[in-house]
Design a protein that fits this description.
The chain has one domain: Nuclear Transport Factor 2, Chain: A, CATH 3.10.450.50. 36% of the residues lie in helices and 36% in strands. Strands 1-2-3-4 form a four-stranded antiparallel beta sheet.
Length: 129
């Protein structure tokens, strides 16, 4: 199989995968908010208090940041699911390990609260501790 067809097949499989699950929404949120520092993309996954937090943050950084601005060098972030509670909402606990330029490492714990709203899973709150 030619490399371009293999790549196309992989992209097609990823595009067709179901990202409308509580865990997929959490992982997409972590990727956009923490890994890419893209609050606008993360906002698309949010509702309620989480959306309010991100709108406030976007407004606070708007004077020093162009919408959609990407950074040349991003920290390496690994995350590990450390707990999950289910009911009508799903609450996830993650441990983030953030490595900046291979020298400084920080660890944060993040709680992400999800809820199904109009058939779509959304992040409704998140907190770091």
């Amino acid at each position: 199989m030619k490399p371009q067809y293999l790549l196309l097949s992989i992209l097609l499989i990823l595009a067709c995968s179901n990202r409308n699950t509580p865990q997929a929404v959490c992982e997409d949120f972590i990727y956009n908010y923490y890994q890419r520092a893209d609050q606008t993309a993360a906002l698309q996954l949010c509702h309620g208090l989480a959306a309010e937090k991100l709108k406030d943050e976007i407004e606070r950084v708007s004077e020093v940041r162009v919408p959609g601005q990407q950074f040349d060098e991003m920290p390496k972030i690994e995350y590990e699911l450390t707990g999950k509670e289910e009911a009508t909402h799903v609450l996830f606990n993650y441990k983030l390990t953030i490595e900046i330029r291979g020298t400084t490492t920080h660890t944060r714990k993040v709680v992400i609260h999800t809820e199904e709203i109009d058939g779509r899973w959304k992040v409704i709150n998140f907190d770091e501790y």
